[in-house]
Write a structure and sequence with these properties.
The structure is a single chain. The longest helix has 17 residues, at 13-29. Strands 2, 3, 4, 5, 6, 7, 8, 9 and 10 form a 9-stranded mixed beta sheet that branches. This protein has a 6-stranded mixed beta sheet with strand order 1-14-11-13-12-15. Helices cover 19% and strands 34% of the residues. A hairpin with a 4-residue loop joins strand 8 and strand 9 (150-153). The chain is elongated and about 70 Å long. It has 5 helices and 15 strands. By secondary structure, the chain is of the alpha/beta class. Bound molecules: zinc ion. Zinc ion is lined by residues 163, 165, 210. Zinc ion (ZN) is lined by residues 163, 165, 210.
Length: 231
C-alpha cells in the first residue's frame, strides 16, 4: 500500500478498515515472497520442542570425552549449523539423583549449560530457575559424567524461557524487537495460548519457536492443527 486518499478530514472508519484489510492481504500474499516486494516477507512459522540437553565448552568437552575430543553430528537441527551430537552425558544432582543419556547440542559454546524441563528438575531434585540461555548467574549446578571424566558444574542448570528466534526480517514483519514478549497460540485438541514468548533477534537465524517438553506435551504440539504468533 503506497497511496492514501485524503479529503482534508482524514480517512473515515470504513476506509481505514478497508486499508487495514488490504495491508493484511498484501502481507499474507507475500508469503514465500518473490523477492520483489518491499515489505518484510512472512516466514514459515516453525515451533519445535527442545528436549533436555547440554551445551558444552571446548574445555569441558575434553575433560568429559578425552583430549582432542570433538562433537560429531547425530542430526542437524532446524537452525543452520546447529546439531544434536552423538555425545551424551550423565548428570547427577543432589541426593544422587541422575539423568542419563543427556544429549549435547553442538557446536560448542564458551560456557557449559544444561537445559531441563521442570519435570526433569523434579526428577533431579533441582529447583530450576527460568532463564534465557546464557543467563546462568546464581543458578544451580550439578555433576556431569562423561566416558573419560567428570566436571562439577558450579552453575548453569536452567529451565530455558520459552522463546522465538527471529531474523530481523521476521521482527519487522511482526513489528517486534529483541526482548519483546509475544504470545503463541496453539490450536488442536489441547489448544493453549502461551504468554511471555521472548523474542530473540539474530541475523543468523530462521524463524523458530522453542518450547520445552513440558510445554510441548501440555499443548500436544505434535497434534496441533495450527500455530500462530501474536503480538
Ligand atoms: Zn532456542
Amino acid at each position: 500500500m503506497s497511496t492514501m486518499v485524503h479529503d482534508g478530514r482524514g480517512p473515515d472508519r470504513a476506509t481505514v478498515e478497508r486499508l487495514v484489510r488490504q495491508v493484511l492481504r498484501e502481507r499474507l500474499g507475500s508469503a514465500g515472497g518473490d523477492g520483489r516486494t518491499a515489505k518484510p516477507p512472512r516466514s514459515k512459522l516453525v515451533v519445535n520442542i527442545s528436549a533436555r540437553h547440554m551445551h558444552v565448552s571446548p574445555e569441558h568437552l575434553e575433560v568429559l570425552f578425552g583430549p582432542g575430543a570433538k562433537l560429531t553430528v547425530l542430526k542437524p537441527l532446524y537452525q543452520d549449523g546447529h546439531f544434536a551430537s552423538e555425545q551424551t552425558v550423565t548428570i547427577i544432582g543432589p541426593r544422587h539423583r541422575t539423568i542419563s543419556n543427556l544429549r549435547i547440542l553442538g557446536p560448542c559454546r564458551p560456557a557449559s549449560q544444561i537445559e531441563l524441563a521442570f519435570t526433569d528438575g523434579i526428577a533431579m531434585g533441582l529447583d530450576l530457575p527460568v532463564r534465557l540461555s546464557g543467563d546462568v548467574k546464581d543458578t544451580p549446578g550439578c555433576l556431569v559424567l562423561g566416558p573419560k571424566g567428570y566436571i562439577e558444574l558450579k552453575e548453569g542448570v536452567i529451565r530455558a524461557q520459552r522463546h522465538v528466534h527471529m531474523h530481523p526480517h521476521d521482527a519487522a514483519y511482526y513489528g517486534v524487537g529483541n526482548g519483546d514478549m509475544m504470545k503463541l497460540r496453539v490450536e488442536g485438541r489441547c489448544a493453549t495460548t502461551f504468554e511471555d514468548i521472548i523474542v530473540r533477534v539474530d541475523p543468523k537465524v530462521k524463524l523458530e519457536v522453542h518450547l520445552d517438553t513440558d510445554e510441548g506435551n501440555a499443548c500436544d504440539l505434535p497434534g496441533a492443527s495450527r500455530v500462530e504468533l501474536i503480538r
